[in-house]
Amino acid sequence: MAAYILKRLLALVPVLLGLTLIVFLIMAAIPGDPATAILGSYATPENVERLNQQLGLNRPLPEQYLLWLGNLLEGDFGRSYSLNRPVLDEVLERFSATLILAGSALILASIFGLLAGIVSAVRQFGWTDRIVTFFVLIGLSTPSFFLGLLLILVFAVNLGLLPASGMYAIYGGGDLPDLLRHLLLPAVTLAVVATGVIARLTRTAMLEVLRQDYIRTARAKGLSERRVVYLHAAKAALVAVVPVIGIQAGFVLGGAVYIETVFQWPGIGAMLVKAISTRDILLVQGGVLVVAASYVLFNLAADVAQSSLDPRLRR
Amino acid sequence: MHEQTEPMLQAQDVERLFGAGRTLLGRPKPAVHAVQGVSFAVRKGEILGIVGESGCGKSTLARILAGLDQASAGKVLFQGQDLAAAVRRDFKAVARQIQYVFQDPLSSLNPRKTVRAILETPLRRLLGLGREERERRLQKVIDAVNLRPEHLDRYPHEFSGGQAQRIAIARALAAEPKLIVLDEPVSALDVSVQAQVLNLLDDLKARFGLTYLFISHDLAVVETISDRVAVMYFGRLAEIGPAQRIFTQPRHHYTRLLLDSAPAPGKAIMVPESESGELPDPYNPPVGCAFAARCPAADELCRTRHPALEPAGAPKHLAACYHPPVGSTAHE
Amino acid sequence: MSSSAASQGRVSALGLLLNNRLATAGLVVLVTILLLALIAPLLPLLDPNATSPANRLLPPLSDGHLLGTDALGRDLLSRLLHGARVSIAVGVSATLIAAFFGSLIGLLSGYARGWADSLMMRGIDMLMAFPYILLALAIVAVLGPGLINALYAIALINIPFFARNIRGVTLGLARREFIDAARLSGKSRAAILFTEILPNVLPIIVITMSTTIGWMILETAGLSFLGLGAQPPQADLGSMLGDGRSVLFNAPHVAIIPGVLIFLLVMSINLLGDGIRDVLDPRLKSGALARPMARTAVERESVPEKPATAKDAVLSLSGLRTAFGLGQRQIEAISGIDLHIGRQECLGLVGESGSGKSITAMSIMGLVPTPPGRIVGGSIYFQGEDLLEANDRRIRELRGGPVSHVFQDPLTTLHPLFTVGDQLVEAIRAHQPLRRPQAEKKAEELLELVRIPNPRRRLQAYPHELSGGMRQRVCIAMALANDAELIIADEPTTALDVTVQAQILMLMNKLRHEKETSILFITHDFGVISALSDRVAVMYAGQIVESGPTKEVLESPAHPYTRKLIDCVPVLGQGDRQLDAIEGGPPATGERPPGCAFAPRCAFARDACKRGEIALQPLDAEREVRCLFPLDVKREALVHA
User: Fold this and answer.
1) Residue B281 phi/psi, 5° resolution?
2) Which residues contact residue C378 at a Cβ distance below 8 angstroms, ignoring those fewer than 6 apart?
3) Residues of A numbered 279-298 whose beta carbons fall under 8 angstroms of chain C's beta carbons: which are they?
4) pTM (two decimals)
5) Tens of pLDDT along B157-190?
6) CATH architecture of C7-41+79-284
7) Which regions in chain C score pLDDT beneath 50?
8) What is the ipTM for the molecules in this complex?
9) What class is the B2-226 domain?
């Protein structure tokens, strides 16, 4: 298993290089003078010239890429002109907030998605199944940013139970209960779609597995139905669901963009939206790279989890 | 019977390697010899049966002989010409001469095409026939395989396995080939339908003067239909010879084991219990005879040197065995 | 079966879709929204962009403004319908673009294989390494905010999704034999791709489109909501929602109204999409995804009396009928099976596919999947105990204990994720109060019993690490784990090679005498039957047509079907014999003709054979036959009986 993980980690290197290449190419595709785009339209000609020198923007593209990559490896992501601070500092600070939000949403989605999916498959065509199916459908069709607004209206404005925005209270906050109170609404909102997808897939996977020959064998052995469903079938279904949870990590990380904007959560998504509208290109670049890299790691974790479940995948 | 005629198809030291090559990092990839050192000839009007168990390379060989795959080494000659070169030059020209019938009839018919569309394709694409001529030939072909005209406008899933296999045979027949490679054509069928198809194949061969290569894992089926039989084990020919001789006086211990293992009504199965039935690891093949580990007669020689196909006591009977079994089986 | 499937296939796709209530509801809602959006410019609506500061934030149902106004006093109803036009147009265009390029890449990549495939797929993988919406953001960051840019971004990030899906399907199809067949029919590679593969891929493309279009609309709305899509004064539903957010607390309707419309739009598309998928995906159409229950449902109209044979037989079936519900129709797969197995006896049940032999075997311990199967009549006695009356707990005790099973394909019947040892230990501990180490010891002994070399190490192996023969030995070991009195073996050697089959048959024959077990052995092969069984029962079209001692039945079959079945199988050593084929095919399940089911194919059939029920009648003390004019000399005896 350790050898397998090492192998997979090594295989990450080209993927990460590919990521940087795509990000680099997208940024290189910016029409007009990149230095002006990076510094904003109010930059002085001297500053533009200096940046062109610094980034080697007057050299051939492959050379530029290697130069840029070298800088990245040294931790130099450039400087954000709108915030006037190093991109990496800002990105890492914001990213920890996003990780809290997206992480809790993914955990919520996995737990409730798996439970709902399994129960709904076991009670196929029963009332539980219908109710789950109904809510999954609603969840998959509601725009998360709209759902966020509705939840704010109900729980923050009308009922006054939970805070409407931010990560900590401005006065006297900062402890864990305070964080949890702020986290609840955005995390739930963010989790809804992923829960729906996971529930739906778990249900299908369970129904598929329950028809397999080895389930008949398990029954023919005289095992209790509980053992058949929750051990034999659920384990096999999990193999199909785990990679989907990995993919959902991507949707949750991306969806955080909306939720952070709606709830004014100080995460990387809200930062990106602001950076795009102020055309702070280096900040966008840094933010996209860090989130994408973390998503790659998420997927690796899902892969490893899947192959630890299924011996046939360990090669 | 056909001794004087020129062989229609000749395999010369045919070899097929899967895998191999190198990875991006330059490490050699593991390679498997699916077929190795296979040589034989088929004469016009003959039926050569190729028999062996799963993984022995018989299907790979069949695809090479039909031009669907290329040998990694060795040569296949069709009517004296190099088949691989002919395929590269003009696949259609080869397909006019050699056709193929697959094991699973439903998988070999496109589910979204009517029988008419399936059968017309070779008439149009291979023979370039006009509409009227096509229609005439279509009727002839479906008549030959005992299907009715109203079947033409149905889809494959509306047919039973036996009917579907007859459509597949009609498709192969449509181009009027000289040679048909039949890859387990009756294995997916029920026994009562199996006989229908076998009898049909026999009948078609006589009517159209065809030559067959008949691949099967079922010894009894092969015996029924073949003039000559080749037994394959682990990618090589273990034995080849006239059908009757092979089935009564096998000169390879593997053939013998196959014959002893085959169930038959009213026959008790007697095989040595020590026999494991395990094949060697294809990634780490034995140096000597591949069957040595399972063979009652194997000695040091068998384990260190691979035996060549040599005459085995009767005309046209060759076997690759240093210590061939003697006597005959109970089947006489 | 085939004729009913055919007539089902001819029901129009739309008809099937309308059968689905939810999909119909989705269709109605969607068509309504589409229609309203389409004719919006023709409706007597106010100018969607005309501001009127005096009338700002009017609530719904205000005079002249049915849905109220927004923060600039613009009419919400008008903006809503015009916004819906924009959202739908963008969503549909993005879907079409993504579907076209994605499917093309998928088709080419899946069919080309080799380096072209690797190259395209590595590129796709790279794109998929980005979290979904993040790449869209990066693209918009470069191109600048705007509706068309958002459209490109959304389309681009969905291309990998289509490409992956379509490639997977294409790859599967390209391996199918009909592709080789088309090549042999003279088709070029391009012709194969577009006339053989594409028609099979098209339904998948449609399914993928119908399930992603909702997503696309949501995502474009999202970008607009963030201010990166539609730019003022142009509005789509997303940007309306974004506008509403700033006045959320004092005029929530400005945000809620466009939000609800997005929801309705996406929901109706999803409902319709699911409906389309169900219609186009034949696997779902047949309702095959129903979850089988733990035990076959028993729905007998009456409980028959205990037959006399039930007393001393190990197993005794009488009048057993098992049916399958297919839609409104009920199809009887087996109709009145009578058979019994004595102590230490091996009964071979022979028949072709569809004869009902496996259904008979699986009915005994309630392993026929419900739905759709159920037992609708007859009785099953095991050592004098009525199994159809027994409760679930009792059945569980019997399963794997006194009655165990060996199934056909050992690769699919063993659980792929548990080691052989775990599965054996589980079987042992389900019926014996043993601790794990003791059970492991016992498992090792069992593997030794079935002649698996190096049993201790093999306990750690997963099924896929063993050969087919070894796997079947493991299954036999499992069947012997709790000293079964009856083993039900359903085609246990059919998936095996002939030399391996011989080993397994020898092993089973040896063990059954050692362990003194009875066996019900199901097969299609008379040769296999001879190797093992004392008595044989022949099935045809859901009924037993003949039974008796194996040797006698094989040597002088009384039923014409048995005779034909023996004669049509080639036998080793009789290569010169012309095979005696049976013309035609067996009747479709549930479509048994009146009288003898074999009569239409029988050379000896007379008028009497085609009327009424023909009973299974004793031929002599040990043999029974379901024929009015049985072959052989014993015909007289039956006439008098």
Assistant:
1) -70, 120
2) C300, C304, C317, C318, C319, C320, C321, C336, C337
3) 279, 281, 284, 288, 291-292, 295-296
4) 0.86
5) 888 888 999 999 999 999 899 999 999 999 888 8
6) Orthogonal Bundle (1.10)
7) 1-10, 285-287, 633, 635-641
8) 0.89
9) alpha beta
